[in-house]
Every structure is written in C-alpha cells, then in structure tokens.
Amino acid sequence: MDFRKCNREKVFRYSIRKYHFGAASVAVAALMFLGARASVVQADTTVNATEVSLESSEPKSDPAAEGASEASNGSERSADQTSNSVQRTPVGSDRDASPSSNNGESSEGSDRSNSSAVSGSDRSAEETSNSGQHAPVRRARSVGEDRASRLNGDYSYNVDQVPVPDSKINDFDYLFSHWYDGMFHWLHANSHGDVYELYTNSFDEKKIRRKDRNRNRRVDKLYRDDATTDSSKLNIFNLYPQAEYVSLSIVPNGGGEARLTVVEAGGKVLDTIPIPAKDLWIKQSEYDKREKQRQSIDKSALNAELGKESVTKETAKYQNATADKKAAYDKAVEDGKKVLEDPNATQEAVNNAKKAIEDAKGELDGAETNKAELTTATSTDATATKETAKYQNATADKKAAYDKAVEDGKKVLEDPNATQEAVNNAKKAIEDAKGQLDGVASDKSALNAELGKESGTKESDKYQNADEAKRTAYDEALKAAKAVAAKEGASQAEV
C-alpha cells in the first residue's frame, strides 16, 4: 500500500541505521508502523535509531497491512541500511509549532527529538553529493558574530544566516537535514546570549539543548525572559505584551523558509510570522565574499578615535561645553562603538562613524577655565575678611562656615580638571558664607577714654616717682592699646 497516497501528506525522508545483529533492525522498522495511534515511535537506545514522529490529520490505512507489507519487502533492502519513505514531523517543523504538541517536552529534547531524523552517516553522504560540494564550514568565530537586525514588515529580529553549498540553497532535503543549525542560530541570535547550545549526541549528530537543562521548556521556543531586551533588534514581544514565547518551525517541503508562531501563556496562537529563507540561510559563495569584505575592513582609525574619549572628556573644552554639544559628542562616540562592534559594518560606515566623532569634538564650545576670581577669594580677600570685626566678632558656626568655604575653594583651585561651573560655584560659596558673618564693630569708647588719661598720668607723682620698670610696663601697655584703638577690625576681646 502506498503510504504517501493514503496520507496525502508531504513526504520527508529519514533513515534508520542498521547494526549487524540479525533481524533487529527489521523488527524496529515493523514496530514503527504497527504502533497504531502512536504519534511517536522510538527505537530502544541500544539500537541507535533516530526518533520519527508519525502524524496524519486524515484516516490512515490499516497499520497491520502496512506492517506486513514492510516486512515482506525487508529482503529487498541493502545489507547496510534500511530506508523508508514516511511522513515525518521533526521538532521545529511546521506542525510541531502547535502549542499542544510542545507541552511536557524535555529541554534537552533527548538525542532523538530536536532536529532532523537523518542519521549522521546519511547526512555525510548527502552533503558530499551534488557535484562533489561539501557541507560548509563556518570560520572559527563565535556564534552570533554574523548577526544583524532585520526588518520584516512590522517585525524586527536578529538574523545569523547559516552558510550552505550554493547548489543546496533551494534543496529542501538538505536544508531540512540541517534545520538544527538554522533554528539554533536564529534562536541564539535573538536570545540574551546564554540560553541555547549545540552539542553532538551519541549518534554523532548535532542537536540543540538549553544550557539550564530546563525540562519544562522546549528547545524550539524562545521564551520572553530568554529573549534579548533590545527592542530595536527584536520587537515581537513588545508588539505582543501577552505573548509567552515564539516557536520557530521550518515550512514542510518548502524552500528553507520558516514560520514563527507567537503564543500566549494559555496556548492561544496570537500570530504566525513568515521568516524568509534568506534570513536563515546564505550561499557559501556569498558568505565567503562577505567574510573577505569583513576582513578587509580597516577599523583601526575608528578604534584610535574612540580611544581618545576619556582624554577628551577631561578637557575644559568638553567639561565647559554647553549641554547640547556634550550630548552630541557622547552620541557620536556611542554610535561609533556600535559600528566598531558590528561585524557587518562597511568601510563607509566605519569612516563615517570616525568623522562624526571628530566633527562632534570640533563643535565642543567649552572655554578654558578661569580661576582668577576664585584665587583672589581664597587668598587676599580671605585674609582681609578675617581681620574685620564682622569676622572677628562673628559666632563660631558662622566663622567655621566661612573657613570651610575658603578651604573648599582652594581644593577646586588645585584640581586641574575643575570645570568653570565648579570654579564659579566655589567662589559663590565663599561669598555667601562671607555675607553670613554676623560680627559687629567693637566698642572702643572705654579704651579711648583710658588713652585720653595718658598726659595726666605721666605728670602725676605716682608715675614720676615710680621705678623705671613700672614706668616701662605702663608705656608698653599704652602703646599696645593705641594699636588696638587704631585697628579697624579689632575684636571686642582685643579692645
């Protein structure tokens, strides 16, 4: 019975490895068809066969009859490999995107459920076919180095295309057998970078698994908290705030394109977004050309200009610039850093970024810091102020506040990177503290009255008949009193 005609479904090819232990492989193949109503038939791990999911939305033929048919044809199969043409739905294929089919799947997906069911040996043979073209090998660079943001209608997402032989770019069988690679690079490019990883299973097949081994999350889904938070690169979760995850699946029997299903927590499908094949795959020749162009890009001048950022920001030209000029320079620098980190940046983009930084730096309008007035406020003016009664007779807290303002001003003077704003603020602080001094002029009336008695005292017998030492002491005291009386800023204590 023709299984393909009965199911009227697209047909995918898979292979089952046969090991030399008699009729075991034939039994495995027969069991795969005899399992009525089974959506997944899996060989025992000791047989090393890959998992195949059998589904059909239409009535199936009699499983027993088909099993008998398969068994009768067993003798016609080669001694080294058994192959069947059956309908298959892999993890990450179009029908597997259904929310109901993803529940309860292991995060690792086991070694038999995360990608194509084509065995390692079959893939090797297939990859070396077609005019002798071999499977492409990426350069020794980190995953995601090719990523770039793509706009697809209203949706934006990162792309990290997988290189394939030019002759295979429209070969669905080949792309399907490498779907683990295409799916991994899309998911990884749009995650926060530490969610998924590729590994090789016991059958020497590449598979995808989550690094956290969370068995409650499927490997073909990108969950909201796993996704990049940069909405300029991935905006789907912003457009659908209620979405819990997106699920990527290859379109059966297509040209390598995929569908991205947006699903909310309850399993309701909110949208299905077509992902063009060009966002997943790239011809090896185009990839090599892009690599050559990337390697020829000279970013040294841009890197050198970015290296001047810290020095520029310490200059008065930047420090004293107006806010809009400083912001323009800051933006040019940040844009330049993005270009420097962009593996797909063109030489023109690199040159333009460097020029933008230079132009913004040239527009900085800050003048050299003028510290002359602050210098006066902390030196000669401070000395004079401290000799006035206003300072001398001020309360302790007012004097302390003035002293601190002067000391702080001196520190600003000593700072080679002090801005004009900082200098002006320090000068104003000194002036404000000076204005708060609450000392009043000293009362010298009693002192002046005592000084007025000098002539009478010196003509008296008491002065005339005193011994010389006492007259000298009186004369010295009189001299000091006259100095205090003449002193403009003499404190009340001195008087």
Distinctive features:
495 residues, alpha+beta, Single alpha-helices involved in coiled-coils or other helix-helix interfaces, 4-stranded antiparallel sheet, two-stranded antiparallel ribbon, 14 strands, 42% helix, disordered N terminus, Ig/albumin-bd_sf
Structural overview:
The chain is an alpha+beta fold. Among the domains are: 162-288, no CATH class; 299-363, Immunoglobulin FC, subunit C (Single alpha-helices involved in coiled-coils or other helix-helix interfaces); 371-436, Single alpha-helices involved in coiled-coils or other helix-helix interfaces, CATH 1.20.5; 444-486. Helices cover 42% and strands 14% of the residues. It has 22 helices and 14 strands. The protein has helices spanning 3-7, 24-34, 63-72, 120-127, 172-177, 179-190, 236-239, 284-296, 300-306, 309-312, 316-319, 323-341, 347-362, 372-378, 380-385, 389-392, 396-414, 420-435, 445-451, 454-459, 461-464, 468-486, and strands at residues 12-17, 40-41, 52-53, 81-86, 148-152, 155-159, 162-164, 196-200, 206-210, 221-223, 243-250, 258-264, 269-275, 281-283. The strands form six sheets. A four-stranded antiparallel sheet has the order 10-11-12-13. The chain has a two-stranded antiparallel ribbon with strand order 1-4. Strand 12 and strand 13 form a beta hairpin. Helix 17 (396-414) runs antiparallel to helix 18. The chain is rod-shaped, with a radius of gyration of 44 Å. It starts with a helix and ends in a 9-residue tail after the last helix. Mean pLDDT is 74; it is low at 1-91 and 93-146. Residues 13-34 form the YSIRK Gram-positive signal peptide domain. Residues 80-90, 118-133 have a biased composition (Polar residues). Residues 51-157, 362-402, 436-468 are annotated as: Disordered. Keywords: Signal. Residues 1-38 form the signal peptide.
